Amino acid sequence: MNIIIGNRSYKLMFAMNDANVRWAFNIKKWAPTLEQMAKCTSYIQLEEKERLGRFYFKEDFKSSLVGRLLMRKFISKTTKVPFNEITFRRDERGKPFLAHPNLEYIKFNVSHQGDYVVLAGSNTVEALGVDVMKMEYKGGKELSEFFRLMNRQFTSSEWLTIKQGTESEKIKMFTRNWCLKESYVKAIGTGLNLDLQTINFEIVQKNLSQNEIVNNTKLYIDGKMVDWEFHEMLLDDDHCVAVAIKGTDFEKVKFRELCINELIDEGLPILEEDMIYCSNYFKKMDKK
To answer: What's the order of all strands across the beta sheet hosting 199-202?
Structure first.
């Protein structure tokens, strides 16, 4: 199959390992140099660069930049279209999408929270969403009061599951359920405006691990089980990730952590390197 981008024709070439991708990037492990930052920010579109410049914290800047680079790497690797000929736009909700009509069947989604930025991508599914969560609670209130305030975000059945065990176990189950809901609403594209009490997850396997993909969690919409599959695992001891999938191809693919060199190994510049712009990154604040 050939696609036309600009004045060039590209033959789409899909390898099985490329068609269903799960990547993770730990931003805490990356302390960029000025030269690295200049190179990385030359690989993104101007509007993306301007958006990054408005972030107050270094972590937010890095997370958003890595997310943009993950998307560009996935599309380039999957379609063989060069980095610098790929165009992204944002829909009315601010969600990035690939601005090439003949590539609409390629699905991808990015999430970042805690120490990780993750991407899930496929060319074989109808819909796909991903979410990552750090399994911690840093609120100032007692956990019971926090749960009371969040009451309407989960069904009574989900709360029974969440509130079992020690405080640490409750926090882990809360973040896992939230991760599942986020992955689903991102896949269907509605955002959290949806009534979350109409969405009920039944968790069969209570524990997650880094070595196994759990895929037996069930989803009920208005009390009826629906044909979605959810792939869950741990990225490390502190982070869980969930991928929501609709379609017929439910290949179980573990998340693979990339380093910065892998992330940009096929990068081609869109913009000129901008040392002045990048020097401002190092003046941004660190989150406490």
So the answer is: 199-202, 218-221, 224-225
Instruction: Name every residue whose Cβ is closer than 8 Å to that of residue 247 and which is 6 or more positions away in sequence.
Output: 122, 124, 125, 126, 127
In percent, the amount of the chain with pLDDT more than 70 equals 93
Q: Under a CB-based contact definition with an 8 Å cutoff, are residues 247 and 125 in contact?
A: yes
Burial 68-106 (b: 16+ CB within 10 A, else e): bbbbbbbbbbbbebebbbbebeeeeeeebebebeebeeb
Placement of tokens 């741990």 in the chain: 234
Q: Does residue 47 have a pLDDT over 70? A: yes
How far is 142 from 72, CA to CA, in rounded Å? 42
Looking only at the bridges linking them, the beta strands covering 116-122 and 218-221 are unpaired
**pLDDT tens across 188-224, in order?**
987 667 888 999 999 999 999 999 999 999 999 999 9
Query: Which SS3 state, helix, strand or coil, does residue 12 take?
Result: coil
CA 265 vs CA 31, 43, 56, 69: distances in Å: 18, 11, 28, 11
Strand bridging mode 256-257 / 20-26: parallel
Q: Tokens at residue 253, please?
A: 């693919």
Q: How far is CA 81 from CA 5, 11, 16, 219, in A?
A: 9, 9, 17, 36
Q: Look at the alpha carbons of 148, 152, 157, 158 in this order and tell me if their dihedral is positive or negative.
A: negative
- pLDDT single digits (tens) 245-276: 998 767 899 999 999 999 999 999 999 999 99
125, amino acid identity: V
Say how far apart CA 237 and CA 201 lie, in whole Å. 23
Reference 231, options 210, 246, 215, 251; nearest CA is 215
Q: List, in sequence order, the alpha helices (H) in the chain.
A: 16-19, 34-41, 46-53, 58-79, 143-149, 156-162, 167-188, 260-263, 275-281
| CB-based contacts of 39, cutoff 8 Å, min separation 6 | 264, 267, 269, 273
